[in-house]
Specification:
Elements lengths: L3 H16 L2 H8 L3 H15 L4 E3 L4 E3 L1 H29 L3 E7 L3 H17 L3 E7 L13 E4 L9 E8 L1 E5 L1 H7 L21 E8 L2 E8 L7 H9 L5 E4 L4 H5 L4 E3 L8 E7 L6 H30 L1 H12 L1
Helix pairs in contact: 1-2, 1-3, 1-4, 5-9
């Protein structure tokens, strides 16, 4: 039978190794840095190998540490999951669930409702949400999971696609009154576009009935924020790409108009990202719940947003233009 302290030291080592920081690991574990450092030193002595290289500026795993981490991580995760499952049987999923999510409008409007419903059904889980732009450091910032609209580059992360958000092309009526409205994708090349990344131009790919057209667009303004791009578009600065559900109220109120509605842009995927497949009960219960709810909510919102782009509000805008 292994000594109880051996199992605890294994868990302490995994925490430090994953975070590559004694201070972050100590904060997550709720123990003094000096105590954690001493336990790891004693653990290395017991193993007989140096597992961590420490300097004043950084901490790195040795080759022995890398190999040992790969072996014991799953054991520690399975032990934690087993404990959480036992607790869940006794009183249901519980604990502090820390989630990172992008500061997009659809998150504020729709994910908030999903979390509210989940919280009302799981009284023993405290949910904390941080609105943070990508990339998110799940381990370093101690997140249980992240909601992402871009697939992370780290291959070690576990990524689950849960939904898609439809995108379209939008501009202000004042801009179209001045510059005219594009009727084909190629027309966009002569229009002023709010470029979604740093630079003066970008390539957009539009699809209709199996036909795909790639065009180069450009304009004097670029930004990486969908919310700011929307504001520039409302101000008449050009055409922007936007999630349909992010601008449905602008379209309904006549501040924005969708153009080329028969042509589709690549949809924005929505992912749940975790550091392991072996999740505690609190994380599994949220992912199971939110995957079903969020997919339905976003699909419904996209349909409603699509209708608002071609409904009475757009008709009224066209009628006003014709009568002026």
């Amino acid at each position: 039978m292994p000594h109880p302290q051996l199992l605890r030291d294994m868990a302490l080592f995994v925490e430090v190794a994953r975070r590559k920081s004694f201070s972050q690991a100590a904060a997550a574990l709720g123990m003094p840095i000096s105590s954690l450092s001493r336990r790891i030193t004693l653990f290395e002595s017991a193993v007989g190998l140096r597992l961590l290289d420490r300097t004043t500026r950084k901490l790195a795993l040795t080759s022995y540490g890398e190999a040992y981490l790969a072996q014991v991580s799953r054991l520690v995760d399975e032990a934690q999951r087993t404990f959480d499952d036992m607790m869940a049987v006794a009183k249901g999923p519980s604990g502090f669930l820390k989630i990172a999510a992008p500061p997009d409008f659809w998150v504020l409007r729709h994910l908030s409702g999903v979390i509210t419903e989940f919280s009302s059904q799981h009284e023993h889980i405290h949910v904390h949400v941080d609105l943070k732009p990508a990339p998110v450091d799940l381990v370093g910032d101690n997140y249980d999971l992240a909601v992402a609209i871009e697939e992370p580059r780290e291959t070690s992360l576990i990524v689950r696609k849960v939904a898609e958000v439809e995108n379209g092309l939008f501009g202000a009526p004042s801009y179209f009154d001045e510059r005219g409205e594009p009727t084909t994708p190629l027309d966009l090349e002569s229009h002023q576009v709010i470029v979604p990344s740093q630079g003066t131009n970008a390539t957009w790919s539009l699809t209709r009935d199996g036909e795909t057209v790639a065009i180069t667009v450009g304009g004097p303004i670029s930004c990486n924020s969908p919310s700011l791009a929307r504001r520039f578009a409302v101000a008449g600065q050009g055409i922007t790409t936007a999630n349909v559900i992010n601008v449905d109220s602008d379209v309904s109120n006549g501040r924005l108009r969708r153009v080329l509605p028969d042509w589709t842009l690549p949809a924005t995927p929505v992912y749940f990202v975790t550091t392991s497949r072996l999740l505690p009960a609190k994380s599994r219960s949220f992912i199971d719940f939110a995957t079903k709810r969020l997919a339905t909510v976003l699909a419904t919102a996209s349909r409603e947003g699509r209708r608002s782009c071609s409904g009475p509000a757009r008709t009224r805008v066209i009628e006003r233009a014709l009568s002026s």
